[in-house]
Design goal:
two-stranded antiparallel sheet; 11 helices; 2 domains; alpha/beta; 235 residues; Rossmann fold; 49% helix
Length: 235
């Protein structure tokens, strides 16, 4: 058993989940590079001189982030609207993460509240949870602040918003995330953090970044939570 994981889950009272990664792969059926290219087209239609580097950016969230730093709020809103619409389409073909659902259900059975904290739009996250019969288990859903990409993780604000909504202390919450922005944001918020290394090279990266524990399968969390609810494993 992952002793770091067991110890971590025994020390917290609430579970915060990043969405894209721990819960599902949102762009599995509507590839992220395609969405990013569509956002770049929005920029061009608004008269923005797009650099070659931005034109080849494969991450739609990065396109939004860089648009926001340019300072034209009207253009940022246009890109935000296009991304929200793309995300709503994407969740229709999103691929559930193996054991993601089991983690949510096991946490609730163990008496732990579960919140979602995502750089994706709250509407997309909520739509996915409803379609997969998980909405009743996850509250609150904290998504990307509208047209303010600077407030996305690693900014700790959305994480702290979830913590306040749950009425918990930051140190009694753990965020499961699959990116450095999750780990950095959790650290800044004073929240414990569990790195989900869905690609093996992330294991060492997450450990070096200060993750409290690292997993390579959400099944590890589900098993640990089930043991916790049964009073097993010293949790």
């Amino acid at each position: 058993m992952n002793t770091d994981l067991s110890r971590l889950l025994g020390d917290v009272d609430a579970l915060l989940l990043d969405f894209d990664g721990p819960v599902c792969s949102i762009f599995a059926g509507y590839p992220a590079p395609q969405v990013a290219a569509e956002l770049v087209d929005v920029l061009r239609r608004h008269g923005v001189d797009v650099s070659p580097e931005l034109a080849s950016e494969p991450d739609p969230l990065e396109v939004l982030r860089r648009t926001g730093t340019a300072g034209d709020h009207g253009v940022t809103r246009a890109v935000e609207d296009a991304l929200c619409e793309a995300e709503r389409r994407a969740v229709e073909s999103a691929a559930p993460t193996p054991y993601g659902r089991e983690v949510i259900v096991a946490a609730r059975q163990a008496g732990m509240p579960v919140a979602a904290v995502s750089n994706n739009s709250a509407g997309a996250v909520t739509a996915y949870l409803a379609a997969h019969r998980l909405a009743e288990h996850v509250s609150p859903v904290i998504g990307r602040a509208y047209a303010e990409p600077g407030r996305m993780k690693p900014n700790p604000e959305p994480i702290l918003q979830a913590v306040r909504s749950l009425g918990e202390l930051p140190a009694r919450c753990v965020l499961i995330g699959d990116s450095l922005s999750d780990i950095e944001g959790a650290r800044a918020a004073g929240v414990r953090v569990l790195g989900y290394a869905n690609r093996l090279p992330k294991v060492d990266v997450f450990r070096a970044a200060g993750a409290d524990a690292v997993i390579t399968s959400m099944g590890e969390v589900a098993s640990a939570l089930i043991s916790q609810s049964r009073g097993e494993g010293g949790l």
